[in-house]
Design goal:
- The structure holds 2 protein chains of 2 kinds.
- Chain A contains 7 helices and 5 strands.
- Chain A is α+β, with helices and mostly antiparallel strands.
- The longest helix of chain B is centred in the C-terminal third of the chain and has 17 residues, at 265-281.
- The two termini of chain B are 38 Å apart.
- The chains are: A alpha+beta, B alpha+beta.
- The A-B interface holds A 1-3, 5, 21-23, 25, 28, 44-46, 49, 52, 58-61, 63-66, 68-69, 71, 112, 115, 132-133, 135-136 and B 1-10, 30, 33-34, 37-38, 40-42, 50, 52, 54, 78, 101-105, 107-108, 188-190.
């Protein structure tokens, strides 16, 4: 017998509710119940990073987080990181630096790089540290060169703002 | 893949959690979920009931009691990595968690969960063993302390009973006479280690000791006190080299006696000699902070 969970969660600033089976992941809640398909499901083991979202301000593998655990939390997905018009600084850098092809891994990278920038860590990172930090997001198309370039680009913009 | 169906309860207190565990012998504890949920997703593990302890606030407490660092079971890896109070209590913790997965995993994985899960290639169980720590286990029958030496039974198996909840991790504070060195080999950063070692050196006159704790080399982490090196612990200094054949022989003999996977001997001895080098080069009585090299 399976529990049905009544989930109340703020997603991208809006209060959302759903009644879902207990084993529903946050990823499945977002995609199948809240029609937010920007978050992708790849490995369901936490390795590929394509499901990465923010929960209460910290990056989270939504495939390793139950919808039940998300009850009462604030979730931000790639849809919530995209401005009404245009692109965020991270998204713009990724576009400029050819950091995407098929787009499957892209939302996860947007979340990861956004967190690196917002947390204050990115500004102090060299390329080696950036490559290590991006190691939790896998891309099968680009060979990572453009993704690293985009993160360096965002870092340099952050540094530029201070000088 | 999706997990098989289960019932789910979010426990609000430790008492409620242990009562739920007592009531259902096919119940599992959900802490950070970063080890359990992949297993449930792959259906390599199944349970009838999930008891979520993630909202029990007292399990996130961190305090120093006497000369022991007490970490609630729900303290997340990210906090171990960045909390300055935890780092000053024992810097080895901050150092090892950087090797666990990646940022998003570390944001949610917990020290209690990692230790209770007892993956043979995990860093935190080995750290508990190397630092002579213990855990507190609570059930409806009461509360007991389990020393690290008695905790890890087999791969993915601890001496915790099915109805026991690990609530607290206790680690002795770092002392000025102690240094440590850590080295693990993983094909890519964040991968599970293929072999790892923690070497501790205590240069005190009363109880000099050199010990090595290996992990990812057998069913559980394993600790060996190196008697020959312990006798000269206070002479082990920056001049000591892991390439010293006497050190390598000591480590090789210790590994062969430890009952670990003989197929990994060369890798295990190599990681141990590098960990030894790092421990030897760090002398906290001389430098102003404890710990080995990064």
């Amino acid at each position: 017998m399976e529990t049905t969970i009544n989930v109340q969660v703020r997603v991208n600033g809006a209060a959302r509710t759903a009644a879902v089976p207990a084993r529903t992941s946050l990823a499945d809640l977002l995609r199948d119940h809240l029609a937010l398909t920007g978050t992708h499901v790849g490995c369901e083991q936490g390795v590929c990073g394509s499901c990465t979202v923010f929960v209460n301000g910290v990056s989270t593998r939504s495939c390793l987080f139950l919808a039940a655990q998300a009850d009462g939390t604030e979730v931000v997905t790639v849809e919530g990181l995209t401005p009404v018009e245009g692109l965020s600084a991270v998204q713009q850098a990724m576009s400029d630096d050819h950091a995407l092809q098929c787009g499957f891994c892209t939302p996860g990278f947007v979340v990861t790089i956004t967190e690196m920038a917002a947390s204050g860590r990115l500004i102090a990172m060299d390329e080696h540290a950036i490559r290590e930090e991006l190691g939790g997001n896998l891309c099968r198309c680009t060979g990572y060169q453009g993704l690293v370039a985009a993160a360096l680009h965002v870092r340099d913009e952050l540094r530029g703002e201070l000088s | 893949m999706k997990p098989a169906p289960f019932t789910y309860v979010a426990a609000r207190t430790v008492d409620e959690a242990v009562r739920l565990l007592a009531d259902n012998d096919d119940a599992k504890v959900l802490a950070g979920g970063q080890s359990l949920l992949p297993l449930l997703n792959l259906r390599m593990a199944r349970c009838e009931a999930l008891v979520d302890i993630g909202r029990i606030a007292v399990l996130t407490d961190v305090k120093v009691t006497g000369d022991v660092l007490c970490l609630g079971a729900l303290v997340r890896h990210t906090r171990l990595e960045h909390d300055p109070d935890i780092r000053s209590a024992h810097a080895l913790l901050a150092h090892v968690v950087g090797h666990i997965g990646h940022r998003a995993i570390r944001n949610h994985g917990t020290i209690g969960g990692s230790i209770a899960h007892a993956d043979p290639s995990a860093e935190l169980p080995a750290t508990l063993l190397a630092l002579r720590g213990s855990v507190i286990a609570v059930s409806t029958s009461g509360r007991r302390e389990i020393h690290a030496d008695d905790l890890f039974v087999n791969h993915f198996q601890t001496s915790l009973a099915d109805n026991e909840l690990l609530t607290l991790v206790q680690i002795p504070l770092a002392r000025p006479t102690q240094s440590w060195g850590f080295y693990e080999y993983a094909p890519r950063s964040g991968d599970f280690a293929q072999a790892g070692a923690i070497v501790t050196i205590d240069r005190s006159e009363a109880a000099p000791q050199v010990a090595v704790t290996w992990f990812a080399t057998g069913a559980t982490p394993t600790r060996v006190v190196l008697d020959e090196l312990s006798a000269v612990a206070n002479q082990v200094s920056a001049g000591a080299s892991g390439a010293d054949p006497a050190v390598r022989k000591t480590l090789t003999d210790a590994y062969d006696r430890s009952g670990s996977d003989s197929g990994k001997q060369m890798l295990a001895v190599t990681v141990a000699t590098r960990a030894f080098q790092r421990a030897a080069q760090s002398n906290p009585a001389v430098t102003s902070r404890t710990g080995g090299l990064n």
